[in-house]
Please model this.
Amino acid sequence: LSQSVVWSMSSTSTTVSVPKIGQEAPSFSLPDIEMKSRSLKEFRGRKLVLAFFPAAESPVCTTEMCALRDSIETLKSLGAQVVGVSVDGPFANKIFTENRHLNFPILSDYKREVISKYGIVMSNLGSLEGYNAAKRSVFVLDESGVIRYRWISDNPLIEPNYDEIKSALEK
Model:
């Protein structure tokens, strides 16, 4: 796991650290598939599985989001809400949600501000020069919004360890 990511805007360069376990998760407001603004604060009071994924309808992202969909009852029984986040627009996320019958919110970080705040920018998705997406990442937050587990992959073809996510929720 890389602890920080360097990204540049024009001629300046900034290092953004990945939030650490025990820190409060960076706040955000992002549109859902109905273009309603959803904030991290609204999920306080319950545990949260915050799953960032590179691209809606891509093979591994579909597998991951469907795995979370299929385990939603188990995750809810552990007191958790699931939220997915991608850089895809709300329209693409809506089609993805409908096609895959996803039963949790999918939010659009179309401005790529949240993936920058979380230090999980994956530059040049696939062979798409200049197309920045989210690194496949999972953050488990407690009821107060504090990070209790994090997993970040530099390889977009690797799924998270779902048993680790469940174990983090059981603590």
Residues 59-70 form the longest helix (12 residues). The first strand starts at residue 4 and ends at 9. The chain is about 25% helix and 30% strand.
